[in-house]
Amino acid sequence: MAINENQVVSIQYELKDVDNGDILDSNLEGAPLSFIVGKGQIIPGLESEIRKLSQDDTSDIRVSAADAYGEYDEKAVQSLPKEQFAGLELKEGMTLYGQGEDGGTVQVTVKSFDDDSVVVDFNHPLAGKDLLFSLSVLEVREATSDELLNGYVGAPAGGGCGCGAGDSCHDEKDTQDSCCSTGGNGGCCG
């Protein structure tokens, strides 16, 4: 039976770069990723394929860059005055978080820097990459009324964060929105 809108799905997955086979993310040794179908909590290409599965199914799902984190946009690479980064010990490749014009969280990667400027990349780290998810559907259930109201799995009335992994879905090891977010809400905790 196919998975429907407003159902909670819990998966274990390993994510690989289609081009080189590198493992980009995995929760095989950790808690399952749980999300509510139809709430935009995971990338669109993955969600549309998961909807075709059932509990206990395993599958390899290829998601094109366009249906994942988008194509790489050269215009999203910008040079900013170094004084905007005062007090930070900059390193090439480091990820920084800030507040965007709309008040949301913005993630950038430091590409390079010199005495006057810092070149940052606003593209998601996985932009332009075709992805391969090897996954198992561990559980499918109806979302509770609190979960539907708040939009998060395990969310109590009044809000909160939940990926089905306890109190927090992000830790120091998270490098690429481990909740497979669409990027617009900065991960499952938005």
Structure write-up:
This protein is mostly beta strands and 190 residues long. It folds into two domains: 1-71 and 129-190, Roll (Chitinase A, domain 3); 74-121, Thrombin, subunit H (Beta Barrel), CATH 2.40.10. Helix content is 7%, strand content 32%. It is built from two helices and nine strands, in the order E-E-E-H-E-E-E-E-E-E-H. It has helices spanning 44-50, 145-150, and strands spanning 7-17, 23-26, 33-36, 58-63, 77-81, 95-99, 105-113, 117-121, 131-142. Strand 6 and strand 7 (105-113) form a beta hairpin. Residues 159-190 have low confidence and may be disordered.
Which key phrases capture this entry?
190 residues; mainly beta; Chitinase A, domain 3; Thrombin, subunit H; 2 domains; five-stranded antiparallel beta sheet; 9 strands
Separation, N- and C-terminal Cα atoms = 31 Å
Helix content estimate: under 10%
Globally, the shape reads elongated
Mean pLDDT: 84
Low-confidence stretches: 159-190
As a percent range, the share of strand residues is 25-35%
Radius of gyration: 18 Å
Draw up the topology in text.
Blueprint: E1 7-17, E2 23-26, E3 33-36, H1 44-50, E4 58-63, E5 77-81, E6 95-99, E7 105-113, E8 117-121, E9 131-142, H2 145-150
Antiparallel strand pairs: 1-2, 1-3, 1-9, 4-9, 5-8, 6-7, 7-8
TL;DR?
This protein has 190 residues and is mainly β.
